[in-house]
Amino acid sequence: MFRMLNYLGILSIVVMLIIVETDIGTAQIIAQDVEPDEETQYIDQDQEQEQDNEDNRGIFGFGGMFGDPSGGTIKYWFNPANALDASAGISFRDESNENNISLHLGYLRHQYNDIDVARGLMPYYFGIGGHARFGDRSKAGVRFASGLTYLFQNDPLEIYAEFTPILELTPSTVVHINYGVGLRYYPGQLD
Description:
single chain, alpha+beta, eight-stranded antiparallel β-barrel, 8 strands, 25% helix, elongated, disordered N terminus
């Protein structure tokens, strides 16, 4: 178990470095006083569209998820495109037919320009993070998140669906899929 916690700690550091590098790179592109190229225009469009909904959700949200695993979830937005999410739940799938506690922590990057909706925002997201399951046979690995989220225009709510391949590294190397739908609430945003 100690070795699994070390793996999760290393993965968390890698995720934070990715976040910092992404934010620094974005800031450098925006700060340049040059003609906008395709990448700069894409960043500017993202910022304008993300700003429209930023006032309707907070930085921190919490809620529930249903699928494999099912349990609680939290999300912390660094900015409208980058977030950290975590969950703790019960995974009902295991060879021993015993329920397992499943934990994850990961970085998510949201893309806003590809799906238009009449109200609110519907970005898709992708990311990477650490995953651990504790039970008869504890396991740790890397989680590759992908999903679709809907951010309500006038309510501090988010609903999402995700499909997440997981590469378990200990005690043996195995790939399996997590999936689920969830709801998060962002308190303190609407008076």
